[in-house]
């Protein structure tokens, strides 16, 4: 696929640059490349926020708090708020899968071990991690009556503003003192999902690509752990339900075991 080819080119260039700037790769010790692909199922994130409520057309009998989208109305109070916020009209929040809110693990997970060929380079090796995830969004049509505003009789439009889906590189390893570190390293990589109304959000190329170069400086004892578990996490901060289709996720790890040149 095109995006896999691009990733491999980036990895090659990064590895070559590292060797040229800081050292040399021995002829007997070539880079170690590992790859993991997505599972055969979709993975999803729940909508994190309420959408905007527009084009209200209430009918007779609707709660007066729902008759306009101004300060003091139910819709004004909820728009863009956390999806678990309760409605001032009903005392309820919309039904969501709370287990899919916040930062969540993806199925991109890999363990790398120094015994696989770079044991002698734990203080000098560089590990280039690159991940690609296809991200698609849908603006849900939430129930209004009995949930957001009661009684509600009428029509409206749900509008999901643009927002970010973020990915993170998580590392898990055992430190020299025996304690286990399990947390994010580096900075999050985000992709902006465009605004849209109820229905699928169509994008030209909705692929999120992240890259991080791991070095000994990322660890307290200034050497890469002998065993390092890497996993990509993701988080939704939009009004849309987010999906990554089956087979559309990939992580490649390029371990460059080089020795520093003496000056």
Q: Short summary of the structure?
A:
The protein is mainly beta and 263 residues long. Helix content is 10%, strand content 42%. A four-stranded antiparallel sheet has the order 2-16-6-13, with helices on one face. A four-stranded antiparallel sheet has the order 3-15-7-12, with no helix packed on it.
Folded structure, characterized:
- The protein is mainly beta and 263 residues long.
- It has one domain (2-47, 100-140, 162-260): Jelly Rolls.
- Helices cover 10% and strands 42% of the residues.
- It starts with a helix and ends with a strand.
Features:
263 residues, mainly beta, Jelly Rolls, four-stranded antiparallel β-sheet, elongated
CATH class: Mainly Beta
DSSP summary: helix tally: 2
β-sheet strand percentage: 35-45%
Strand order of the largest sheet: 2-16-6-13
Mean pLDDT: 83
Structural class, by secondary structure, is: mainly beta
Unreliable spans: 1-23
Helix content: under 10%
Sketch the topology as an H/E string, one letter per element: HEEEEHEEEEEEEEEEEEE
The rounded distance between the terminal residues' Cα atoms is 43 Å
Task: Please give the domain count.
Answer: 1
Give the biggest beta sheet: 4 strands, antiparallel
Q: Report the principal-axis shape.
A: elongated
Please count the beta strands (DSSP E, at least 2 residues each).
17
Q: Any idea of the CATH topology?
A: Jelly Rolls
CATH architecture: Sandwich
The value of Rg in angstroms is 24 Å
């Amino acid at each position: 696929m095109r995006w896999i080819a691009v990733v491999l080119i980036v990895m090659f260039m990064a590895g070559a640059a590292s060797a040229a700037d800081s050292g040399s790769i021995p002829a007997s010790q070539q880079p170690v490349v590992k790859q993991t692909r997505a599972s055969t199922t979709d993975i999803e994130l729940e909508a994190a926020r309420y959408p905007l409520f527009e084009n209200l057309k209430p009918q007779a009998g609707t709660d007066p708090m729902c008759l306009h989208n101004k300060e003091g109305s139910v819709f004004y109070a909820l728009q863009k708020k956390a999806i678990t916020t309760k409605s001032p009209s009903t005392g309820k929040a919309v039904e969501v899968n709370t287990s899919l809110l916040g930062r969540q693990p993806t199925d991109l997970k890999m363990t790398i071990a120094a015994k696989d060929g770079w044991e002698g380079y734990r203080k000098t090796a560089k590990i280039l991690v690159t991940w690609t995830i296809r991200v698609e969004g849908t603006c849900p049509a939430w129930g209004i009556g009995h949930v957001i505003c009661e009684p509600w009789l009428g029509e409206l439009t749900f509008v999901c503003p643009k927002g970010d889906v973020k990915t993170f590189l998580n590392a898990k390893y055992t430190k020299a003192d025996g304690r286990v570190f399990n947390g994010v390293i580096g900075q999050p990589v985000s992709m902006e999902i465009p605004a849209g109304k109820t229905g699928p959000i169509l994008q030209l190329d909705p692929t999120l690509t992240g890259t991080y170069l791991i070095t000994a400086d990322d660890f307290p004892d200034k050497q890469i752990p002998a065993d390092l578990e890497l996993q990509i996490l993701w988080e939704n901060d939009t009004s849309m339900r987010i999906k990554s289709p089956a087979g559309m996720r990939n992580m490649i790890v390029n371990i460059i075991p080089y020795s520093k040149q003496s000056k």
